[in-house]
Amino acid sequence: MSLMTYATPSEGSSANPLITGSDLIYGTMPFSQLSASDMENAVREGVRLHNQEIAAIVNQRSTPTFENTVMALDRSGEVLNRAVLALSNLESANGTQDLMDAMAAVTPLITEHSTEILLNEPLFERIKFVYDNRDKDTSLTPEDRRLIQKTYEEFLFSGSGLKGADRDKLKALQSELSDLSVKFSQNVANGMKDPAMRMWLTADQLEGIPASIKDAYRENAAEVLKAEGKPDDGSLYLVTLYRPSYGPFMMYATNRDLRKRLYYMNGSYTSTGKYDNNQILKDIANIRLEIAQLLGKKNFAEYKLQDNMASTPEMVMNFLEDLNRSYTEPMKAEIAEIQEFARKSEGPDFVLQPWDYTFWSEKLKNDRYAFNEEDMKPYFELNNTIDGVFGLATRLYGFKFKENKNIDKYHPDVKVYEVYDRKGDILGILYADFYYREGKRPGAWMTEFRGESKDDNNVRTLPLISIVTNFSKPVGNNPVLLNTDEVNTFLHEFGHALHGLSAQAKHHSLAGTNVKHDFVELFSQFNENYLTRKEFLDTFAKHYKTGKKMPQELIDKLVRSAQYGAAYSTMRQLGFGYLDMAYHTITEPLRASASVKDFEEKALDPVRIFPAVEGYEISPSFSHIFSGGYAAGYYGYKWSEALDADAFAAFKKNGVFDRKTADKFLKMMQSGDMEDPMTLYIEFRGQKPTNDALLERDGIVKK
Fold first, then answer.
1. If we measure between CA atoms, which residue out of 105, 248, 277 comes closest to residue 190?
2. Contact, 619 vs 309, CB < 8 A?
3. Which among 35, 39, 45, 52 has a CA at the least distance from the CA of 13?
4. How far apart are CA 83 and CA 113, in angstroms?
5. Residue 449: in which H helix or E strand, if any?
6. What is the pLDDT of residue 14?
7. Is 493 a catalytic residue?
8. How confident is residue 8, by pLDDT bands cut at 50, 70 and 90?
9. For 331-377, how does the pLDDT look when each residue is reduced to its tens digit (9 = 90+)?
10. Inter-residue contact 441 to 93 (CB < 8 Å)
């Protein structure tokens, strides 16, 4: 039973549904009733209530047991968790100044509170007692034992064994780290929308840009000019650093100087000026090192990886270096081929640069396969694609999706769906937020407003899951047409959503995506395999005007082109992984005077694609590792890619919609962290994963 009964809400909290709980259908979030101040106040009240719950666990006279200590802790903090998820998710999705201010105000409080719990000596002693005596309790289920182990290890890894001054020091470091991470993230968000990072162009500067993209640039310009109260004669177009704007420009714009200008903007928007992250990222790396060494580890990666599938820095680097050996020569061959192709037009002295790669790569792909991204887009109308992507879960797992327009949502663009399993039982609620808007964090992600769990009567709390992307909005009456990369992104985030929706754990901490960091991407990246499968595309990819299915010839071109650029793409990802590990395997602090650019170039040298470009830096906007939870974990994308390729090999063998194979895969998703991931994977696959399927899929090794 939850210890919430020990907590007494403060006066006036009844008006705040984040504190009292939602009375809406399925207990969904009452977004229309919430202001930024409501969320901030709920976080503060949630901390107070959670402290009461922790005190009730610690101060009870009963001998520590699983129920009165470990499970009680797992079920505590309901108000705080609800408030933090609401505020942090809306700050990312809407990005208004009041939300950013509220998040900045409560982040130190949240961090301090979390640290105080993890360093609560009496609480840790009770947890340790349960851990030490777990074999004596025959009533414990395997999931109960897993929760005991995970809880004990979390406290141990977080410094519960520290005493006195060391404990106080850790608290201070965690608080400072949290504050710096927020500043880093907000600098990235503000830098992206900085007026200085906009490219105002005229029609004659948009040669090569498809009409639909031009329309989007024109719409961007109209919206900004209107918002700023400036006249608009219809002659200006606006290109920004946001992905739907940046990506197409780098792919299609024939003006090389403008591509170079935009490229430099993308590598400098957090390197100088008021949004400069250079010192902040050094401070973050140094604090992480200090925390790791305080906890008895040589570096932060050694500390962080101890709970991953790849449990040591050596394992991670061996994995990355193995891929580096396999992909380096194919990448060099790809670059040489693209440069030679470009020289046919640009002359024998043309040297391919990073701002040229996407443009000329697309040209060569179109020449070789008579394939162009624009040829695919008419078949990927957004509403049809939603049906197709959702239909994948129907074909594989029997899930059904029913839009509910009456469920409260945080923005008019959001669509809300009830999700049902094969038996017709409701699994959870899915919020889908597809369109780009000013202030929204760049990229795409899945998150939750409430995770899954079960009470003592096995009654399931429905998960409230959200997927967020930055697709271009409709222009006039024109439909939204996605490119293959955007469809791939949709499939990816939808895989994460299915992981959260299908969860069947009793204990919240073990449910859904609460798995080892290098296991979580398996379920998202697995979905991406279907993008080049005719069996899948035939279910929804039809021309938005004629209604005809995507022709076999175009599908064949997509399949053949899927391997095109795979070596370059992998080496680029390896670069991020090497850079991440470089920052988190330092054993001495980075000096304030140290050059981030020099550090970055040295780290990237083993996986270099192009010569270093002066004035371009990755690190100051590398949100994944400095504010996004991927510190010493970016390798997990490629690790999971190897897993997903190996997993999909089983489907290719048995049939890509094979029910028995899908049921075994679904069991992995449902299990969350109730079992060790390698155990779950071997149960599904019948063997440990290898890189073989990945190398074959990328065309590095021929079958």
1. 277
2. no
3. 45
4. 14
5. strand 445-450
6. 57
7. yes
8. very low
9. 999 999 999 999 999 999 999 999 999 999 999 988 887 777 788 99
10. yes
Say whether pLDDT at 591 is over 50. yes
Q: Is the whole-model pTM more than 0.90? A: no
Residues present in the chain in total: 703
- Given the residues 448, 493, 521, 641, the one annotated as active site: 493
Quote the tokens at residue 93: 């999705």
Instruction: Tell which residue, 188, 198, 195, 193, has the closest CA to residue 275.
Output: 188
Say if residue 6's pLDDT is above 80: no
List, for residues 603-645, the tens digit of each pLDDT value: 999 999 999 999 999 999 999 999 988 999 999 989 989 999 9
Q: What is the mean pLDDT of residues 249-268?
A: 97
Compute the Cα dihedral for 83, 84, 88, 89 and give only its sign. Answer: negative
**With 0-12 CB in 10 A as exposed, 13-18 as middle and 19+ as buried, what is 16?**
buried
pLDDT at residue 114 in the model: 93
CB atoms within 10 A of CB 591: 9
Residue showing tokens 């470091």: 173
Please provide residue 468's backbone torsions phi and psi, each rounded to the nearest 5 degrees: -130, 130
> Parallel, antiparallel, or unpaired for β 464-471 and 426-435?
parallel
SS (H, E, C) 620-674: HHCHHHHCCCCCCCCCHHHHHHHHHHHHHHHHHHHCCCCHHHHHHHHHHHHHCCC
DSSP state at residue 588: S
DSSP 309-347: SS-SHHHHHHHHHHHHHHHHHHHHHHHHHHHHHHHHHH-
**Residue 154 has which token pair?**
């979390």
C-alpha 600/C-alpha 578 separation (Å) is: 10
Q: Which residue shows structure tokens 């918002």?
A: 227
